[in-house]
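Entry type: protein chain
Record version: 2
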Amino acid sequence: MAYVGKLFGAFQRLHTAGEFEGTGIGLATVQRIVYRHGGRVWAEGAVNKGATFYFTLPNSKEIGDEQQSDPTG
């Protein structure tokens, strides 16, 4: 949890490339998509226990029905 502020930054590595593969863009992409849909994303973890990632998205009532198209045209 000491590096939670770096988890969702693009190209932020907390380990060497030899320890874990990847480009370092995955979590930043997830965060950007979730934020654009009005949601939130976060992570919780503990040493030798693993990590859990969460996200929430608003339902259509929270973002407003006016954004949906009128079926009558």
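Comment: Strands lie at 40-46, 50-56.
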